[in-house]
Write a structure and sequence with these properties.
- The chain is an all-alpha fold and 92 residues long.
- 95% of the residues lie in helices and 0% in strands.
- The chain has two helices and no strands.
- It is rod-shaped and about 110 Å long.
């Protein structure tokens, strides 16, 4: 009878440990899911930042081109035409 009692106690301890491990694994899976969502959000933010940076770079290049055009303009009419073109593109 003592062997059955000891064996039952060992089995109970093993089952308890197994239950604890299952809870730990479940908790870790939830943590992994949260981290994956955070990573996806950060990836979207990085992509958005890259698009903004590219757009800013294009605008800076266009601005530089227009400044050069104004510097190379021969008279006031050309300058006005260039500036009207800038305003027209801005309004689109």
């Amino acid at each position: 009878m003592k062997i059955y009692a000891i064996l039952s106690a060992v089995i109970a301890v093993l089952l308890a440990l197994f239950g604890i491990q299952r809870r730990k694994i479940s908790s870790q899976k939830e943590t992994i899911k949260k981290k994956e969502k955070e990573i996806k959000v950060k990836e979207v933010l990085v992509e958005g930042s890259e698009k903004v940076r590219e757009s800013d770079q294009k605008l800076t290049e266009k601005q530089t081109e227009k400044v050069e055009e104004v510097k190379e303009a021969k008279d006031e009419k050309e300058i006005v035409d260039i500036l009207n073109d800038v305003v027209d593109r801005f309004n689109r």
